[in-house]
Automatic annotation (TrEMBL):
<dbReference type="Pfam" id="PF01261">
    <property type="entry name" value="AP_endonuc_2"/>
</dbReference>
<keyword id="KW-0413">Isomerase</keyword>
<dbReference type="InterPro" id="IPR050312">
    <property type="entry name" value="IolE/XylAMocC-like"/>
</dbReference>
<dbReference type="GO" id="GO:0016853">
    <property type="term" value="F:isomerase activity"/>
</dbReference>
<protein>
    <submittedName>
        <fullName>Sugar phosphate isomerase/epimerase</fullName>
    </submittedName>
</protein>
<dbReference type="InterPro" id="IPR036237">
    <property type="entry name" value="Xyl_isomerase-like_sf"/>
</dbReference>
<dbReference type="InterPro" id="IPR013022">
    <property type="entry name" value="Xyl_isomerase-like_TIM-brl"/>
</dbReference>
<feature type="domain" description="Xylose isomerase-like TIM barrel">
    <location>
        <begin position="30"/>
        <end position="281"/>
    </location>
</feature>
Amino acid sequence: MKTMRIGMNLLLWTDSPAFIKHEELVCTLHKWGFDGVEFPVAPMSHQDISAFSSLCDSLGLGRSAILALDAETADPASSDHRLRLAALNEIKRAIDKSIAIGANVLCGPLFQGLGRFTGAAPTPAEWGWSAETLRLAGEYALEGGVSLALEPLNRFEMYMVNTMEQATQFVKNIALPNVGLLADTHHSNIEENHTAEAWSKSYESIVHVHISENHRGMPGSGHAVTQGVFELLLKRNYEGWLTIEAFGQSVVNLIPRLHLWRAYAENEERIARGGLEFIRSQILPVRE
């Protein structure tokens, strides 16, 4: 019987995985009991991707991939066709790297380039530009057997798509079988009145899940990761990834971007292992 698998996003330790630096980390995640690893693939070299793919194969670890776009250089929702083309090409490169590393899911907040706000709600034109760019990316991903899991972010990080309802309508407009949603507890905790209810209404579009606390620390130590989320996923027989997305003080580039002004645990190991234990306690009946 297929079950939910628990993954760990490497962004807790690095935004640029390199085999010579992080081989031991991946082995440690396997030793702790994770089923898979989520790689930020964009900055990774082809040599590192090949090495990590072989390592994960040898350990029996699954893989997913994650990507975010910088609005200054790549933006699916931009009025500038050059930025839209740059976004499409960057997503295509990430799809190629996802295939090479052995991931069948590429997730991320790809509706727009991050760091750009207009001071207004998204226009129909912006919605159309983004949808067309991501439709082309989805068609490319389909050829390689990769699903795109598009992530709505909270209103402080993105203006294009904030709620599961908006995101569901977006992927329905794209109408590709391999384009769905990444549901993230952190963002839903901010934007939804009730996370589990919102996810239930959008469930058929969900292809990937991030377990992320309100403070971005250890899952189970805050209030964003509710019992209702696990009850919903169990009830609906979800068979995808439950990937911990947590952040700390180790990745300097992410501190100002995500406003990580203090640590929420004594170290990264505590966040990862404590989060794994918490998730297991919520889905144990299915995993036994």
